[in-house]
Amino acid sequence: MASSIPLTFPCDTGSGVGLLLRSDPPARRAVVVVQEWWGLVPHIEDVAGRFAAEGYTVLVPDLYRGASTVDAEEASHLMNGLDFRRAAGEIAAAVAYLRDHEGCTDIGIVGFCMGGALAVIAASVARIDAFVSFYGFPPAGAADLSQITAPGLFFFGDAEDVFSVEGAQDFVAAQSARGVATDLLVYPDAGHAFFNDTRSGVYVPAAAADAWRRTLTHLAAHLPG
Length: 225
What we know:
Blueprint: E1 4-11, E2 14-21, E3 29-34, H1 42-53, E4 57-61, H2 72-80, H3 84-101, E5 106-112, H4 114-123, E6 130-134, E7 152-157, H5 165-177, E8 182-187, H6 205-222
Parallel strand pairs: 3-4, 3-5, 5-6, 6-7, 7-8
Antiparallel strand pairs: 1-2, 2-4
Helix pairs in contact: 3-4
């Protein structure tokens, strides 16, 4: 199993921090994993480890700079205090670090909840090869989404109650019309955070397993390494 290495990497605002995981042997394909609103919690570290075990170099930016919580009210406070443009810039800087310092040639972004929305925003400013958003989509006007040229994949549950599934569907249709391969799946009997296996009240094993399989297929198709 890959071990995580604390990392400081350069970005426009000075520096970003996070965790770096290298596969064995080191891979030229990479994934930037973007946290939920809880912060860089064990669930996100576990997901990063799963990608490393699949043969990816992985970088997880710590957008809250060490803060995390299991309390929804505190998570909302942390998210509302986050500058999304700065955060998207840090994600783009993480992509650049993987190219410039880890020798990665094919890079994707995978985000969850708040991180899913940020993955989409970052895809509009970073040079990436694919992205995946788990139950997240940015509000109108957050970024110029017409700048996104990387193929994308979205997952939602049919009981999603946090982000706009309709907004994501409109985006998918617009991307498809531009010839940019983008897809969206909605799982029945699933709600927000259905992939998070640390939250028994929302975790849906069948949907999570299918979404993971499709994520690996999507990344393998666009990140040959």
